[in-house]
Structure formats: C-alpha cells, structure tokens
Amino acid sequence: MTPHVNNSTRITERLRKDMDRTGSDLDIRSYFEPPLTEAASTSDIRAIMAELAQRETTVTGRLEALVASQQDLQHSLTKLDLLRANLGSQAVATRSVSNNMLSSAAATARRISSAVNRLDLEQVRVKNTLDVVEQVAELRTCVLGVTGSMGAAQDWEAAASYLNRASKIPSDIVNGSFAEEIVPTAEVPDPPKTTLAQAAESLRGLFLREFHKATDENNGPRVTRFFKLFPLIGKPDVGLDVYARYVCQGVATRARSNLHAGAGGLQNTEGYFYANALTKLFEQIAQIVEQHGGLVRLHYGAGSIVRVIERLQTEADVQGGIIIDTWSDERSMDRKLTDIKSYAFTFLVQSFLPAQPARAGTPRAGSPHKKGVEESRNHGEEGADTKEVDTLLSEMTVMAARWALYRRFIALKCKVRWHWLLMTPVRTLTE
User: Fold this and answer.
1) Cα–Cα dist 224/298, whole Å
2) What is the pLDDT of residue 159?
3) Considering the entire predicted model, what is its pTM?
C-alpha cells in the first residue's frame, strides 16, 4: 500500500499546484476516475489503484521524454553559444582590419581629394588671372589704337572700332588698379577710363560736324558713313537723333515744294491737288522707313527704327496740318459749311406742297407771286453748289483713305496693335 499512498500524495500536490496556478477551488475527488469514495470493496480499490499506477507510468514516460528533449535543446543552445563566441571573435578581427587597413586608405583618399580640390582652385585662379591679363592687354591695345587712329592717320572707322572693342571689357577691369598701372604709357599717361571717355567725346563732336557737313552738301555716302559710326562709340541715341532730323528736313523740304507747286493756280485746275500732296507726303515717309529701316536695324539693333518713326510722325503731323489748313482756306471750307447749314432746300419743300392751279395770263408787274419766284431762284443760285460739294467730299475721301493706308503701314513697322494706334493722340483729317 505504500506506493499507492505515495502516488496519491503526488497527485494531491499536483492538484494543489493547479489550484494555486489557476486560482480556482477544485474538488480533489473529481480528479479520480472512478472516485475512491465509490469503491465498494477491496477489489474495486485495487482496480482503481492499478489504473492510477498505469496512468502514472504513462505520465512518467512523457516526463522522461521531455527531460531527454530538454537535454537535446540544451546541447543546441551550447552550440549556439559557441557559434556566438566565434562570431564575436570574427567581428573583432573585422573591426581590427577596418581600423588598421581601411582607415589608412580612407585617410589617403581624403588627402588626395583635398589635394585635387586645391589643385582645381589653383587652376581657377590661374585661369582668372590669365583672363584679367588678356583683358588688360586688350584694353591697352584699344587705348593705343584709339589714340593712334585719331592722330596723324585720322582713321575714324578704326578709332570707333577700338572704342567698340573697349566697351566690351568689364568695367571693373577698366577701372581696376592693375589696368591703371599697366595701360598708361609715356604717350598716353592718363588712366584708361579717362582716355576712352575723352576719345569718345572727341569722336562724337567730330562725327556730328562731319555728318552735318555731309547733309549740307547732300552727300549721301558720307552721311551713311558717319551715321554707322555713332553706335560704335557708344552714342546710338545721338546718331538716331541727327539722322531723324536729317530725314525730317528732307520730308519738310519736299512737302513745301509740292505745296508751292500749286501756287500758280494748279490747285484750282487739279481737283485732287491737296489729296495728292498729302499722298506724296505719306509715300515719302513710307519710302524712308522701308529703304533705310534695314540700315538702322543693322547698325543700331532691332526696334531702333521706332525712334526715327516717332520723329517722322511728328514732322508728318506738322506738314500734314499745313496741307489740311491750306486746303481748307483755298476751298473756303468755312463758308461752304455755313452755306450748307443755312441752305433752305426750297425745291425739296415745294415738292411736298400741294400743286397750285395754273393761272391764265402773265402776272402783272410787281406781283407777289412773281417776286417770290425770283427770290427763290436767286437764293438757289447763291447757295452751295452740289457739284463742288461732291468734289470736296471725294477729295476728303481720298485723303482719309491715304491716311488709313499710311497708318496701317506705320503700325506694322512699329509692331503695335491697331487699337493702340487708333487711340494715339494725332492730328487727324477730321480736325
């Protein structure tokens, strides 16, 4: 009976542990199947004890199997510990290699990279120095070339070309201390900036004198020659202004000549004389813009012709105004407008009145009827002539058509929108 008592004791302890772990109040008797309390005889107790012993044997076998597997697991864990120790030693060796070999290579790479960067910086500095030296040498060549061309040679094209080359050199080089030390010579002791400014101003005055002299002599090639030199010396506005005055003088001279051509009564015999005079004015300006526009764009740049067109348009307003005023005076427009406004339209009024019965015989002298007819006839003779009014309207139509065509041409040359040109305050034919 002792083994069975021991087994019962172990079972009881296990049940207590289960109770402690789960926190539940278990009945010990429920653990036994069948329960000992139901045993009725000694043979029943022995059968139950045998069954319990068999169960103990089974549980013990399972526990021994678990213990055996735990030993295998412990063996595997021991192997893992050994592998971890080997891996740690390998990591230590790797760090040692990295610190001893790769660190020196990295330091060498850093030194090489730093040396390359310093070399690049030195190359950039050398290149910048060479550029400065070349620009100063170019400046010296331009200064000496300008003074030499303006001397005995009097080669104005070469002098202007040297000034144009000097204008492309950066201002910090021209005004720098290095250029002020290198460029001046015994013949040209002034700083390069002063020398170039004096040369440009001297050439400006010279070109203006020669340009005006050429215009007075009506020498077209010389006018073109000096007109092309102004932008080279940095004075494009001066060149455009004197050129615009030159062409405006030509426009004014020709417009006055065309207008004075009718002083001998031609304006009366030629029905559209003033319309033709206005047309010739517009055609001359259009020819100037069309023929000279390419030359201006070539030497002064795109859009520079607009400055000339502005001056031409001002002159067109003046000369066109003179033509319109003369036309108004010669055609007695004020009187004709007054006559038209006061015209009674007697014939038109009588056409709406009922027809008067015809009276036999001749009206007596001093009859009111005869007097009214004569007054109506005289008033019709003194009123506006419809043929003359028709001629004036036709001439005005021609003027307006020519002005519209000219305006469209100028707008295309200036590359502006139509509504902008229409809203520009100009003196139109309706004034």
Assistant:
1) 12
2) 93
3) 0.61
